[in-house]
Amino acid sequence: MPLKVQETGYTGFYFRVLQEGLVSKSDSLIRTSRHPKGITISYANHIMHRDKNDTEGIKKILQVEELSASWRKTFVKRLEGNVTDTKERLTGNQGK
User: Any idea where the YiiM-like triple helical domain is (predicted)?
Assistant: First the structure.
């Protein structure tokens, strides 16, 4: 599954709950704002999984205050020239 997510860029839905309550399948979703930096999840996924050496893209994403600690750590490592082998995470193959 991780490989499929990486290949397609479909990582799920990202929403913030503004008010607790019940939701039904007939309810709609409304975007109330966009991130001021213009960074989309699609763009971040592209840089994370496909265009890993795009230093300008990495720097742009690192400006996003809401970026998770793990993604921030990965991007900082890339800027420092440290490459992480993702084979085990993607395939479940542990040295086989």
Answer: 39-81
